[in-house]
């Protein structure tokens, strides 16, 4: 079995080896561009890890890993258009660099490339893998739709928020795990347990992200602490605060929504989070989801020593400081 | 074997029976909307016809037909955004009705739905069908990219134009034929002959469209005659005229490009087409492509009487007046 670092290398090398057509250049250059921006490649590594639980030959799953990473980056191109985002991983977004029309079309071509990778998998697993992949992709679209709709609403419940991040983020992690398991030759029950692991781990990961945005170490976090507060993003923390806060605190919160003194805004909202112990509540919810995830992983019918690497990666990602 | 009308009914009924999720409404309503706008359903009917050449049970190909029609309508949603088109089949385009962001995302979800239909086909044909479908889908994206780029250029050659319509339009027709053939159980040679038939027929169809835009009967054509002339669209006719016209006629043509008296513009450009016998040249090219198409169809290794319906449909579409 491979270490995480080795799997990351396999993914990076496989991405480098992909050859897109050279023409039309404006269709394919954005795809090479966004694929080369890096990132932690967590999703494809999870897919490979999941396959390796059941089959020592990790090579059989590489096209699946490429499909997932390509699909994920396609969603980033289209999401960045919808969110009007200028920067992705420190570089211009595709629509800033090539224009919106080109970004729409390159995204579409990238979705096709993702399917092309998936279709190269062994025929025996193709139907099950693609069924899972399509369900996953629909879920991601639904999550993005809800995320856009929530921006226009002030009455989003925590239940709705959890459902949104489940679709937008966690279902894709679940999909990676299940697809990897199917490729590796897992039975239905194990594949579904790994799906449950992935979804709940994905939820825990996103909740940790919400917490780190406020309480992360500014140096280690790598992005502006308080970014969610500044943009009034409806995270678990904000929704929980709205649920618990007294009338005068809610009024103070409301009066801050348009504030332009960001340092003051971040400080004041953080103080409100502290007052209502929002961090503890968010951490408890995060840990609850992580527990569900690891319980599912425990139930997977293979020897524990084969799960060690996956266990370690998942725990490090949930306990991360950046 | 079924008649064209029966196959159209099968396609319409299958489209009506598709149930999209009810939520999020704004994600799935645009999909139902554009799928219900109608059209001739030529592509799915061709796919069913192609499958029926080899297998009497047309039901085995219906999910393929749905996949192709769903994919085609997805490209219409995204193309209409890129082309800034307000009207599609006499109704508001999706981005006018739901906004650009929603139209991008519903298009994405629709691409997933197309793959979902395709994945329901029999496991034995899945890999070959999806490989062809992915190649086709890439081609369509490449064609749309070239079409957008050509709008910014004044030096497009006829060869480039034919390559663009091949990718944007004809490859999808070829894909329908090949996918239908694979589902029906055709061998590789027959499937490829039907692909060649579809591509060349698709080219002939598009060239006929270019001709009808200028020379169609205004009543039967159903859209404004001369629409391509008014919008300075670089069609086979315009590119051929540019190739052949004398300097003073080219100057006259250039001076008309910004004309606002559309009736005068259409009349004058048509007169130039007549002067250089552009209609005959376009018709000759159209017939050349149709001949290649029907020669490929002739070579398909099945009895001629099984090809009768397909032959009839293809000839009627090429000799159509609308």
Automatic annotation (TrEMBL), chains A, B:
One of its GO terms (molecular function) is prenyltransferase activity. InterPro entries: Isoprenoid_synthase_dom_sf, Polyprenyl_synt, Polyprenyl_synt_CS. One of its GO terms (biological process) is isoprenoid biosynthetic process. The keyword Zinc-finger does not apply. Its cofactor is Mg(2+). Keywords: Magnesium, Metal-binding, Transferase. Pfam families: polyprenyl_synt. Signal peptide: none annotated. It comes from the Bacteria. Belongs to the FPP/GGPP synthase family. PANTHER family: GERANYLGERANYL PYROPHOSPHATE SYNTHASE, SHORT CHAIN ISOPRENYL DIPHOSPHATE SYNTHASE. This is Geranylgeranyl diphosphate synthase, type II. It comes from Pedobacter westerhofensis.
